[in-house]
Amino acid sequence: MTLYRHILKESLPLLFLSLLFLTAVYLFGFFYAGARWLEGVPLLKVLRWLSYHIPGVLVQVFPIALVTTTVLVFGRLSAEGAQFALLSGGVPLYRAALPLLLVGAVLSGMALYLQEVLVPYFNERVRVAWWDEIHTEGAGLHRLVGLEIPIGKGKALYFEAFEWEKKAMRKVRIVAFQGEEATFLFAERGYWQGKVITLEDYRFYRVDFRAVPGLEGAEDLLAQVRKVFRAVSQGKVLEVASDLSRARAIADYADTFSFGQDSLTEAFRKMRDPFLAPLERFRARLEFHSKLALPLANLVLVLLAAAMALRYGRSTGLALGLSVLLALGYYGAFFLGRSLAGIGALPPELGAWGADLLFLLLGLRALLR
Hints:
With about 375 residues, this protein is of the alpha+beta class. Helix content is about 60%, strand content about 15%. It is built from twelve helices and six strands. The chain has helices at about 1-35, 45-50, 55-80, 80-90, 95, 100-135, 220-230, 245-255, 265-270, 280-310, 315-340, 350-369; strands at about 150, 155-165, 170-180, 180-195, 195-210, 230-240. The protein has a six-stranded antiparallel beta sheet with strand order 1-2-3-4-5-6. It starts with a helix and ends with a helix.
């Protein structure tokens, strides 16, 4: 127990400082990447936008911070000859890593919680703040002009232009199909708030395409046309319910860069949805297993980091270089596996878990030698 207390006493302050440093580096990277668009933006708005990144950043920096901590602590033990003292006292090296394995388990649990609860929400807020607050004042929908957006229950939204003065969608079209029957809503202007789309000056058509062939050669053409166009109406204002919120639409469709708005539960639901297209289910499998594998890297990397530090981390500079090498090696293997799975070269499960399995085997082999 004395050994464990000593290791935790040395490790926890280092872990905290590593997390602070790495989080600051990541946030500075986001700030630097967007600096050209942040000129003239109020400081509080920029800080709020940066703060939305923190949950997602923490999931990524937990493994790096833990590797850095493990390498520095065990490198110091190695430099002081503790490795030989442990072996002489009959204490296997893997037991010395148990306190940091416990820390890794705690970080893994925190990362899974963040992935499920906070990361999806704040990743959405990152995109909405960027397009709807920093780039424009409440006009983020202009990024969706010309796109067909699925809004749930088979409905798709499209608009041709955006009216900046009123922050409204112009020339709006909402289409829905049920079998061979379709409904078409056209409106001159539309406003999207929350999950409600308000249409102004709308026209509503319902078309039964099964009756279209009967138009040719129909004796009573007017009666047959009425079978095709079963209902026609128009009015000033109509509200349409959407399963997709305005914020989520901006987050998902404003550009091609994805922050991953799905939680673990949502990814699992998509993965098991029999009505989802096969390609979408495949991507959901990859996303779900990736969201599990990355947090558990906190457990996997401790073993290899401890073994490598005890053997090669006798100086601080070498220890830091080793931690960078291990972190880059893991993330390189992780994203390579995801990429190979993404193009179908590997099953999604193997693509997501391959890096964890590789580094787990290397760590166990190194500690048990």
